[in-house]
Structure formats: structure tokens, C-alpha cells
Amino acid sequence: GAVVSQHPSWVICKSGTSVKIECRSLDFQATTMFWYRQFPKQSLMLMATSNEGSKATYEQGVEKDKFLINHASLTLSTLTVTSAHPEDSSFYICSAPRLVGANEQFFGPGTRLTVL
Amino acid sequence: KNEVEQSPQNLTAQEGEFITINCSYSVGISALHWLQQHPGGGIVSLFMLSSGKKKHGRLIATINIQEKHSSLHITASHPRDSAVYICAVIRGGADGLTFGKGTHLIIQP
Predict the structure, then answer these.
(1) What's the pLDDT tens digit per position in A3-57?
(2) Among A105, A106, A112, A114, which would you mutate to test the B interface (most chain B Cβ atoms within 10 Å of its Cβ)?
(3) I want to staple B53 with a disulfide (CB 3.0 to 4.6 A). Which of A6, A60, A77, B62 is the partner?
(4) In terms of CA atoms, which chain A residue is nearest residue B91?
(5) What is the pLDDT of residues B15-56, one digit of tens each?
């Protein structure tokens, strides 16, 4: 199967700082990547769709100015949590289809963010 | 009402038992995923279905498109099967996944 990596796997930061999370497709090119988050004991929720070379599409209720997404290459999408607050503490995970428009998704290992 | 409903939410069984987890959805889909999430959070894709049935080792997944229902079965369950099992649907190839709340499975030795 295809491999998707995320970095870092966990991060602890102070309130008010910004945190960048990287999602990389290691053995395929991904024109689309998806970002999800999971609060403790809750289900995963789609945050946004990252599109290479164009603006990301955000789900309702997700602040695009707070969660900046950049998909500058076919193998890398970044999610930056700006001015992080404790309520942003969550598990962030990305996925990507190997082929454009394919249903099969490959998941990164996730990033656990804790904001103090 | 959630678009994807799973049952049961929690399931504890003895080693060797046959396990069934159910998933119902209310929207049109192009495919359904069964995922496994371990305590560290990492997600493993078990199956992707758009029709019929798939089998991989002790795991079997079925889907009935007309009834908007899917089941995940585990035969001869083992403690290492303990995890959260998540049903997720995709409406179209350009869409992200919509997830169920997951089933927390514990297999006791």
C-alpha cells in the first residue's frame, strides 16, 4: 500500500504560539490530501481538503484563518494551527488517495497536539 | 442524526468468539471503509467496499448498498484484535471521509 507520513507525531506548545504539521506522501503524488481531527473520545471529523496548487476547501465551522493549509507540492501538505489555544488540543491526521478521485485513502500516523 | 451510525459502541467478548460490528448510513456513497484505530491513535485501513463482500484473514466485511448497511465480522477473535473499529463513508472520489463514532472492542483472554 501507499505510505503517508506525518511530522511531528506529537507536539506540546504554549497557548498563543503557532504549530505546523506536515503530511507527506512518500511513494506517490497526491494532488488532494484531507485533514481530520479527533477530540478525545469523539469521532474523526473532516476539517479541510487540501488541493495542490490551489486554495484549500474548509468544512463548515472550521476557521480558515486559524488553520492554514498549504499544499505547495504534490507530496506535501502542511497544516498550521495559528495562535493555538488549549481547545485546539486534538489528534490531527491526514489522508490521501493514491489516484486522483480514487475512493481508497491512505492515512498518516497522526499528530497529537497539546496546547498548554 | 449522524450520517453514519455504528453499533454497538462498546463490545467486550471472550477470546475465540465471533464478533459482528454494524454500520448504517443515510447518504449516497461511492465506497465504505472499515478502519482500525489503536490506542496511540494510528489508523489502519482494513477494507474498502463498494459492493458485496471482502475477506482478509479472520476479517470479513459485507455491504448492502440498497439497505445502506455494512457489517464487519471477526472470526476466532483474539486479544490483539482489541481496538476501536470505525466505519467511514465517502460520497465521491473527491470527498473526504465521514466517520462513525467507532466501536470500542475488547477481547479478553
Answers:
(1) 999 999 999 999 999 999 999 999 999 999 999 999 988 899 999 999 998 899 9
(2) A105
(3) B62
(4) A103
(5) 999 999 999 999 999 999 999 998 888 899 999 999 999 999
**CB neighbour class for B30 (10 Å; exposed up to 12, middle 13-18, buried from 19):** middle
* Chain B nearest C-alpha distance from A42 (Å): 7
A contacts of B100 (beta carbons < 8 Å):
43
B34: Cβ contacts below 8 Å, ≥ 6 apart:
B23, B45, B46, B47, B49, B61, B70, B72, B85, B86, B87, B88
Sign of CA dihedral A74, A45, B2, B86: positive
The residue written with cell numbers 490551489 in the block is A54
Residue B43 with chain A: CB contacts under 8 Å: 93, 107, 110
Report phi then psi at A87, rounded to 5.
Answer: -70, -10
Q: How close is the nearest chain B Cα to the Cα of A95, in Å?
A: 9
